Amino acid sequence: MKVQVARHAGVCYGVERALKLADEAAATGRPVHTLGPLIHNPQAVEALRARGVEVAKVFDEAGEGILVIRTHGVDPAIIEAAAASGLEVVDATCPFVSSAQEAAQQLKADGYSIVIVGEADHPEVEGIVAHAGGDAIVVEEVSDIPAHLPSRKVGIVVQTTQSLERLNQVVAALLPRVSELKVHNTICSATGKRQSAAGELARGVDVMVVVGGHNSGNTTRLAEICRSVNARVHHVETAEELDPVWFRGAHSVGVTAGASTPDEQMAGVVAAIEAMTDDVSD
Predict the structure, then answer these.
(1) What mean pLDDT is predicted for residues 44-73?
(2) 241 is an active site residue
(3) In sequence order, which ranges of the chain are alpha helices (DSSP H)?
(4) Predicted local distance difference test score (pLDDT) of residue 217
(5) What's 146's domain CATH number?
(6) Tally of domains within the chain
(7) CA angle, corner 212, sides to 207 and 214, nearest 5?
(8) Which of 119, 124, 126, 140 is catalytic?
């Protein structure tokens, strides 16, 4: 059984940077907390906890020491309040997320009604909404666009892990309804490359395995893209979730991983697939 890994897969720069910042904070020997899970990868978060980096739901739980802001970013008021409380704040917000936050802030200053294409309950989107002044409209699907828009001057910002297809659908739906539409395509380049490579590979293999947190939006979208072109797609976090039955009759398996998936996690899944006995393809 041939196993192929997508050309672009696995951990991205923003996640690598955040993990490095958290490790550096842990090395100080001071109490360290992340504000929410640093990334949407339970195994990576648990590995950080083993090194002394705990997760705080709100900054008050951190008490003292160092507070690391998660890759998804937060409301700037939270950073100010945490610093004022005496915590040393390390901002590990992904640079692409920071760009989306800045775009939303600028659109608000320029008088646009803001539409954010993304998941309303996702922490990245919550942070962008805060930078947009708190009154942005969040839409995940075209059907989420309200019947009444606040104005005919609309600006769009996108959750960094959304697909270009979804952005295009929202733009097409809004265009006839406004007099001015300004679009900031804030989908990160790493996300776009991973989505394209995953779809391309999924078309040419019998079975596709997507590796990453079940709570990871970007990994879930990779699985959705793969399922649109291949019926045999499985989303796993670790090699322990693999089932030999999935590969029965298969001659080729594709593997990709979300941008929040460390390389060693993806490598473990690849090795486990390769180690499976040949009889799964009989």
Answers:
(1) 94
(2) no
(3) 13-26, 42-50, 76-84, 95-109, 123-131, 164-174, 189-203, 217-227, 263-275
(4) 87
(5) 3.40.1010.20
(6) 3
(7) 100
(8) 124
